[in-house]
Amino acid sequence: MARARSGVDVAPRGRVPYGPPRAAPAAVIPTATLITLLACAPDDSPMPRSIATIPFGTTATGEVVDLFTMTNANGIEVRAITYGGIILSIKTPDRDGRWDDIVLGFDSLEPYEAGSPYFGSIIGRYGNRIAGGRFTLDGETFTLATNNGPNHLHGGDVGFDKVVWGGEPFEREDAVGVAFTYTSVDGEEGYPGTMEVRVTYTLTDANELIFDYRATTDRATPVNLTQHSYFNLAGGAAADILGHELTLDASRFTPVDTTLIPTGELAPVEGTPFDFRTATTIGARIDDDHPQLAAGLGYDHNFVLDGDDPDVTSGLAEKNREGLHRAAFVFEPLTGRTLEIHTAEPGIQLYSGNFLDGTIAGKAGRVYGHRSGFCLETQHFPDSPNQPAFPSTIVRPGEEYSTRTVLTFGVAG
Ligand code: BGC
Q1: Is 351 close to ligand 1, i.e. is its CB under 6 Å away?
Q2: Coil, strand, or helix at residue 287?
């Protein structure tokens, strides 16, 4: 497999970068890669996939929180809890078969409740910002919590990241998973309508973590669900994420004002530090003198995914995985770990962990310094309820909100 250097070359399709030797036909895999595959496999034979449920803790208000441990046939392990649907850890091998946890978070429930920057959680009802915490729908104006300066962020004071979800484990022939369910009542955080929400995490033997989001409502409401994991693919090998090589299949982004609300423009990335159409380290231009980087204190922007858009010509958009388009590919050079993201969503927020400042001690006491994790949040565009030109985020009674994002873990070079 070619070392991940260029945007096109680093995105091999349909491959299972490591996995059970049985699932990897040697005839189509170069010898060097096969050696890596074998070295990465925790055993010569596929591990039994499993899903286990144990109690994780009790919230301050006395609600019991469960922990699910999902393991696929290759040994990849994802742990998630019913509080906020939070992903606690994702363990994958590097190119030399060393396993590490590639997401930020805490070891116990208490710090998640005490104040977490949305580590690993489900975000809702509305991922990202709504200007002034207000929107008008069908002639009625709704007022939401302004929990981020003058704006509403990530669902408000008690968003979907801070509630206890129902959780049901499941097992399929080639995957294990958990279905999280939550009823968001009419008026919760100011939103109209009672909404039934179901978010499923599925870990497949093809090393994919699939997020399926579904919601129905009894009254028209905005909805924009996403997942807020902070990745550091180096695991413990690098303090920050600036060396990660990122490709984004986006020819445009949505510039923001100083409070991070989109101006409404879809600006070309061409010739700016926002051009990730070929693999570029996150750190290469993050401190450039650019007004948008100044507004975000780094990257904290929504990118407009090329998808099927005939108006954009980057040529990088790929359709596969049942109609999803590729959004991003990340390569971490120290460990060789890769992360590829496909989605049905029109946008993706690149957040480079600018607000992490060394004041949070996470797992095993590790201090999370500036830019020690990045988020790639698939989404509709921020502030869509106030921006009629953006794709609509309104779901109405009788409709089903349904969207999917697929993360694929691998190794390269
Ligand atoms: C937002 C950031 C925010 C962060 C919270 C991201 O999705 O874009 O502005 O600070 O979430 O941790």
Answers
A1: yes
A2: coil
**Among 147, 375, 379, which is best to mutate for testing ligand 1, by the most ligand atoms less than 8 A from CB?**
375
The β-bridge relationship of strands 140-143 and 175-184 is unpaired
Q: Is 61 exposed, middle or buried (0-12, 13-18, 19+ CB in 10 A)?
A: exposed
Catalytic positions, written as ranges: 228, 377
A 10 A CB-CB count for 69 gives 18
Residue 296 Cα: closest atom of ligand 1: 9
Please choose from 351, 359, 374, 381 the residue to mutate so as to test ligand 1's pocket, defined by most ligand atoms within 8 A of CB.
351
Q: What is the pLDDT along the chain (413 residues), one digit of tens a residue?
A: 233 322 222 223 223 334 333 233 333 333 333 333 334 445 556 678 999 999 999 999 999 999 999 999 999 999 999 999 999 999 999 999 999 999 999 999 999 999 999 999 999 999 999 999 999 999 999 999 999 999 999 999 999 999 999 999 999 999 999 999 999 999 999 999 999 999 999 999 999 999 999 999 999 999 999 999 999 999 988 899 999 999 999 999 999 999 999 999 999 999 999 999 999 999 999 999 999 999 999 999 999 999 865 454 333 334 445 679 999 999 999 999 999 999 999 999 999 999 999 999 999 999 999 999 999 999 999 999 999 999 999 999 999 999 999 999 999 98
With vertex at residue 185, the alpha carbon angle to CA 54 and CA 193, rounded to the nearest 5 degrees, is: 140
Which is the closest atom of ligand 1 to the Cα of 260? 9
- 377 in contact with ligand 1, CB cutoff 6 A: yes
Q: What is the identity of the amino acid at 269?
A: V
Ligand 1 centroid–CA 351 distance in Å is 6
Name the CATH code of domain 21-411 (choices 3.30.420.40, 2.70.98.10, 3.30.70.1140, 3.20.20.70).
Answer: 2.70.98.10
Cβ count near 193 (within 10 Å): 21
The residue whose C-alpha atom lies closest to atom 10 belonging to ligand 1 is: 355
